[in-house]
Amino acid sequence: KGESDNRNQQKMEMKVWDPDNPLTDRQIDQFLVVARAVGTFARALDCSSSIRQPSLHMSAAAASRDITLFHAMDTLQRNGYDLAKAMATLVPQGGPVLCRDEMEEWSASEAMLFEEALEKYGKDFNDIRQDFLPWKSLASIVQFYYMWKTTDRYIQQVR
């Protein structure tokens, strides 16, 4: 207190969640349920999502992944933990907000190419990109790999 802060504020970390917020755990959990429901509904309305997520069950599973929950928590924080404002942000005038992660941005054929490349090259992501998926960025391939490792398909391949 009383000292000037000469640090470059542009390089400082930004607080993205306040654990001392006024909401109860139950209210936060209820908001996350609503955010997942909005994510499922947004996928039902989005033509490109219905191609990738052909069933309601798959859409709901996609809406339950981390990207939806991170967006919901960020929405709460940005709206000062005001549930009404946060809800309005999830469903603005133009329709529900759709948040996609790397798993949803890849088609089934791209995922199969990735698996084939992984079998051939292991975790040499540069070679995977160069020979199998040149239209994908290296960051996208690496991110997809770590998400793919959490899928049932990966577990089946390990067995």
TrEMBL record:
Start and end residues of each stretch annotated as Disordered: 1-20
GO MF annotations in UniProt: DNA binding; histone deacetylase binding; transcription coactivator activity; transcription corepressor activity; zinc ion binding
Protein family membership: Belongs to the metastasis-associated protein family.
Keyword terms: DNA-binding, Metal-binding, Nucleus, Phosphoprotein, Zinc, Zinc-finger
GO CC terms: NuRD complex
Basic and acidic residues: bias regions: 1-18
SUPFAM superfamilies in UniProt: Homeodomain-like
Domain ELM2: 1-94
GO biological process: negative regulation of transcription by RNA polymerase II
Annotated InterPro entries: ELM2_dom (IPR000949), Homeodomain-like_sf (IPR009057), MIER/MTA (IPR040138), SANT/Myb (IPR001005), SANT_dom (IPR017884)
Domain SANT: 101-153
Superkingdom, natural source: Eukaryota
Cited PROSITE patterns: ELM2, SANT
Protein name: MTA2 protein
